Amino acid sequence: RISGGILSKKKGVKKFQALFQRSLELKPNQWKKAADRVWEYFPNDAVVVGIVPKDNVKLKSEVMKYLVKKKLPKG
Fold this sequence. Notes:
- The chain has one domain (2-71).
- By secondary structure, the protein is an all-alpha fold.
- Helix content is 75%, strand content 0%.
- The mean pLDDT is 92.
- The chain has 4 helices and no strands.
């Protein structure tokens, strides 16, 4: 039962990422807003980077840099 729940969660995350990928294909300039929203629900680098359309290497790099800056201590 536990593993079924984990698999369901992974499927849910994949669907969530696919929705954001489609959204970012249409409006790539909204990536920062999308990254912040995904981070609210899934504070995990791999999940956030997974919202970037697979063929957009430049955007993936921007999101990764943003995540690093986001996690740095403020001050």
